[in-house]
Amino acid sequence: MKNFVRGLLLAVGMVAASGAFARSDIRDGNAQVKPEKNDRYSIDGATLGKAELYGYIGDLRDTDGITGIVLKRGGTDEQRKIIGSIARALKLKAFEQDGRELKSIDLPPEAPTPPPPPIENKPDPAPAAEAQAEHH
Q1: Cβ distance 95 to 85 under 8 Å?
Q2: Do 90 and 67 meet the contact criterion of CB atoms below 8 Å apart?
Q3: What is the CA radius of gyration of the chain?
Q4: Distance separating alpha carbons of residues 41 and 87, to the nearest angstrom
Q5: Burial class (CB in 10 A: 0-12, 13-18, 19+), 117
Q6: 103 Cβ contact list (under 8 Å, min separation 6)
Q7: What are the residue ranges spanned by the domains of the chain?
Q8: What span, in angstroms and rounded, lies between the C-alpha atoms of 26 and 43?
Q9: Is the pTM of the predicted complex or chain greater than 0.90?
Q10: 22-106 to CATH, choices 3.30.420, 1.25.40, 3.30.450, 3.40.630
Q11: Tens digits of per-residue pLDDT, 105-136?
């Protein structure tokens, strides 16, 4: 049992240490995202598509308290648009690296909220009206 507890503590320590090193792409509260080919992105040693990047950035916001996303040099217009969309959805700031400066990426306008769909299984009001009529 003693060896089990030591092993467990060692494993937890290794996971904690690897977590500290894995989050190396955060600077000044901003996640640093490198554009890759085919509308993919690289962060913390992983190459992600836009859906995975959204989830990963959301996790960084929740666990590490990031306040923005920086798209490093070389991104396409589509990649800038995606970074802006992710930032808007997660309520973060979006930037593009321009030399040593950060330029703000324009966030896309919020999509209008569509009206709720109609209720398909509405209760029939007729039985209630008939019941009231019977009581009178």
Answers
A1: no
A2: no
A3: 25
A4: 14
A5: exposed
A6: 95, 96, 97
A7: 22-106
A8: 9
A9: no
A10: 3.30.420
A11: 877 666 666 777 776 766 666 555 555 555 55
